[in-house]
Specification:
With about 230 residues, the chain is of the alpha/beta class. It has eight helices and six strands; from the N terminus they run E-H-E-H-E-H-E-H-E-H-E-H-H-H. The protein has helices spanning about 20-30, 40-50, 70-85, 105-135, 155-175, 195-200, 200-205, 215-225, and strands at about 10-15, 35-40, 60-65, 90, 135-140, 180-185.
């Protein structure tokens, strides 16, 4: 299927591995120029080498810690400088440390909210006005199935991602008339480094899934790319 986005320009954060990288790959395969970002230049350069663009699309890397709102704003500016504009924002960040109510200090909530809520707010505030001006834009945030049903031992993620879901749904209503769509994808269990860090034995985890298999990050990436397409007006 032609997604109708060849020549579009995208920023993908949290893109040195996992679902962010898979989404960047899928966008580039559909002719979208991408800037991939994370906190590690070495990991970004390795990730960029796995992306195969089509239709003359470009791939750039940009180091940024989006938990710092000013860095998030600067990252959008850098993306527009590299690509000449921004049409698509994939807002993604690694999850905060695990923990429950009893084990999680109050101070940990500040870091979690910066990483998984305020980063998306800052990115949207910087990027969405460009999309409104161009009368076309796509925002897709990668959150978690925990926004529908909290996950044990992930109280920080549960709290921050529920907040960002409310933010995104509010923005979606406000910008829809300008040709800009705002959506969140709420993945469950996909075979990523994050899942390995949380649970260790992925085979045992897969055994508890009805299909007896974990999600494929590349399948997720293709779904995310479709959400950025002309077919999701």
């Amino acid at each position: 299927m032609d997604l109708g986005i060849t020549g579009r320009r995208a920023l993908v954060t949290g893109a040195s591995s996992g679902l962010g990288l898979s989404t960047a790959r899928a966008l580039a395969a559909n002719g979208v120029s991408v800037v991939i970002s994370s906190r590690s230049l070495d990991r970004l350069e390795a990730a960029a080498a796995t992306i195969v663009p089509t239709g003359g699309a470009q791939v750039h890397v940009a180091v940024a810690d989006v938990s710092d709102p000013s860095a998030a704003v600067d990252l959008v500016a850098r993306t527009t400088e590299l690509l000449g504009g921004i049409d698509i924002l994939i807002a993604n960040a690694g999850g905060p440390p695990p923990g429950n109510f009893a084990s999680t200090d109050f101070a940990a909530y500040d870091a979690a909210l910066r990483l998984n809520l305020l980063s998306t707010v800052a990115l949207c505030q910087a990027a969405v006005p460009h999309m409104i001006d161009g009368r076309w834009g796509r925002v897709v945030a990668i959150t978690s199935s925990s926004v529908r049903e909290p996950i044990d031992r992930l109280i920080l993620s549960n709290t921050a991602r529920a907040g960002v879901t409310g933010f995104l749904k509010t923005v979606a209503r406000e910008v829809a008339a300008h040709g800009v769509t705002v959506n969140s994808l709420q993945p469950g269990l996909h075979a990523t480094d994050r899942l390995t860090a949380l649970y260790g034995d992925l085979e045992a985890l897969a055994a508890a899934v009805p299909t007896r298999a974990l999600g494929d990050p590349d399948d997720f990436g293709r779904v995310a790319a479709f959400m950025c397409s002309e077919h999701t007006k």
